[in-house]
Amino acid sequence: MPELAAKERGKAENALCVEFVRKPKRRKPSESPPGVKGLGDVKAAGRVLGVPDTWIYDRSRSNTFPQGVMIRLGKYIRFDLDRLLEWAKNGCPAK
């Protein structure tokens, strides 16, 4: 029985060691601190407008956003969050 307790204690100690060795979580590009302005991805744009990501993707495919709000970087889409919010506050006018 004492051997079993030692094995269990060893497992617990190993678990604690593993916890300290883990790398810190990396922040995803869509997670920007509150009040930070600049470019954001589709998820950040959806959070700013309070709409699902699919809505943002649909509008980007149909080229609904005015020039300067949506920026294509190869296969990536980024949004100027300040201009996006301004555009939405103005009632989402056509280009």
Cα distance spanning the termini: 77 Å
Shape assignment? globular
Name the average pLDDT.
76
What is the CA-based Rg, rounded?
23 Å
Structural class by sheet pairing and helices: mainly alpha
- Number of alpha- plus pi-helical segments: 4
Please provide the ordered H/E string of secondary-structure elements.
HEHHEEH
Strand order of the largest sheet: 1-3-2
Which strand-content bin applies to the residues? Answer: 5-15%
Helix content: 40-55%
Strand count: 3
Q: Describe the main β-sheet briefly.
A: 3 strands, antiparallel
Low-confidence stretches: none
Tell me about this structure.
The model has no long low-confidence stretch (mean pLDDT 76). A three-stranded antiparallel β-sheet has the order 1-3-2. Helix 2 (42-49) packs across helix 3. With 95 residues, the protein is mainly alpha-helical. It has four helices and three strands, in the order H-E-H-H-E-E-H. It has a domain at 28-89. 48% of the residues lie in helices and 12% in strands. The longest helix has 20 residues, at 2-21. The chain is globular, with a radius of gyration of 23 Å.
